[in-house]
Specification:
The protein is mainly alpha-helical. Helix 1 packs antiparallel against helix 4. The radius of gyration is 17 Å and the shape is elongated. Belongs to the Dps family. InterPro entries: DPS_DNA-bd, DPS_DNA-bd_CS, Ferritin-like, Ferritin-like_SF, Ferritin_DPS_dom. This is Starvation-inducible DNA-binding protein.
């Protein structure tokens, strides 16, 4: 096993960076969805949701930067073109979403997909002894689980 400058297995680190790039592409799509629903939301819940969506896209933008910087820390290059994002993203694109329930449902679906990717990375980073990536994923997961719970509660649904 070859160790990199961080003291981590070089092969596992490269694989983690690839997975983080996939997460980055999905977060970029999620971020764009949030911007779109923030701009286009209509209806009686406008004021409440407009502010909430801005809070979520601001947070997503910070996470995008953190993910890209983690990829760089692991010695790889973060994806950075729209074609990279569309080629790698599993998060659905929410085009022209202005209905409040459809917007919130899109957020729940997107976060569910992000959680699956993050849990996979969490397992792999634990196996690789990569505490930096592991800690990041753990923090993201905790926060996103809570957001899903809140969004599902707003929809009048349970998280089960």
């Amino acid at each position: 096993m070859t160790l990199n400058i961080l003291g981590l297995d070089a092969k596992k680190t490269k694989d983690l960076a690839t997975d983080l790039n996939s997460l980055l592409a999905n977060f970029q799509t999620y971020y764009q969805n949030l911007r779109g629903i923030h701009w286009n939301i209509k209806g009686k819940q406008f004021f409440e949701l407009h502010v909430k969506f801005e809070e979520l896209y601001t947070d997503a933008n910070v996470k995008v930067d953190e993910i890209a910087e983690r990829v760089l820390t692991l010695g790889e290059t973060p994806l950075h073109t729209f074609s990279d994002y569309t080629d790698h993203a599993k998060v659905p694109v929410g085009k022209n979403v202005s209905d409040d329930e459809k917007a919130v449902a899109l957020i729940v679906e997107s976060l569910s997909i992000l959680l699956k990717i993050e849990r996979d990375i969490l397992d792999k980073s634990g196996d690789a002894g990569d505490e930096g990536t592991n800690s990041m994923m753990s923090d993201f997961i905790t926060e996103q689980e809570k957001t899903i719970w809140m969004m599902k509660a707003w929809l009048g649904e349970t998280t089960v």
